[in-house]
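Supplementary notes for students who missed Thursday's class. We covered one full example, reproduced here. Read the sequence, then the structure, then the short commentary at the end.
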Amino acid sequence: MKENFNALRKYNFWNGNVLELGFVRKAYTDKIMNYTGNRLVKVLVGQRRTGKSYLLRQIARRLINSGIQLHNVFYINKEYLELDFVKDYNDLENLLEYYKKALQPKGKIYLFIDEIQNIEGWERFVNSHSQDFAEEYEIFISGSNSKMLSGELATLLSGRYVNFEIFPFSFEEFAGITNKELSKQHFIEYLGSGGLPELFSLPNEETRRNYVSAIKDTVLLRDIIQRQNIKDAKLLEDIFVYLVNNASNLVSISNIVNYFKSNNRKTTYDTVSNYIGFIEDTFLIHKAERYDIRGKDTISGNCKYYINDLSFKNLLYSGFGYGIGYKLENLVYLELRRAGFEVYVGAIKDKEVDFVAIKGDRKIYVQATYLLVDEQTVEREYAPLELVSDNYEKMVVSLDDVHFPSRNGIQHFQIWNVRF
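Structure (token representation):
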């Protein structure tokens, strides 16, 4: 154990170690820090390589800067080779006990455990130590699967954890890391690239393409094919490609089954549905269900899927026809999700409202379009919102150079300036 533990020293702040923190994502760290100082388990979830590890270290650094002793902060990343010996919660418990004997921290211990889902039975460890009244712990964990809180832990920790979904860089963060202004020109640049943090340290498009391809392959292979014992790996990837190239379009499971059958690929409704669910669990894509605005309920059948990052489209499958308006709609969806909204595709009479976004008592109706180029386009975008009779916020966002005046209470925003 001593050798294994000493190998972890370089990943911790002990003895004045200076760790790489990356671009500071203040919006996330501020939000998470607001929940510190209690026994709530802080859970960071999101797609691989969206920056969860950096965020855990940034939070640890902020705690240390606030006066927490260096030795009271213990950071573990299960993806490091040095932690291969930690197979289950008993191994994790033994490591924690060795840490306490070796460093003898006084008072509350702050545990940061990255990619915790790779430790068998981790729920038992977290539940035990988050409720330990003999010794005080504050626990921060991360994972790359949305189902990590759907089982035993959700039951054990009911009401005793807080969840934070971590997305790739927003446009504001893109501007921050590239030292650029929040302008239309730079938004178009962001629209044509992606927001995965590591992309900004890579020198050219080829290396960025290889990097994004490796992420896709890792998620599909390690997080889905191996864990779910997938029998048709090629079909899984082809479904992912289909969803990327049909993002922002209404689709149904039946549509997808028929598409593959028309290409002489045998599959079933249940198989396609299950495979899409597995992809959703890894955060590569997000599902937006249709919402009956007048009936105030979801509608089964068609729905839309959005990509977690446009780099999958821009760098891997750019040869397929895909208009700028669809990518813009995808980014608006992600921005609403970053702001903490539940997001649906609105339906009213025979028209569609791109987004119905709900957060607590707040509701926003949003239309996202490329350009309001003529009266016909203006009518198409504003008419669905004008059918909505309630008094919640209604807005149209676009890439227009001109800021349009309010129309029947509907606000217009240039997309690079909008904040939800």
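Commentary. The mean pLDDT is 95. The first helix runs from residue 2 to 7. If anything here is unclear, bring it to office hours.
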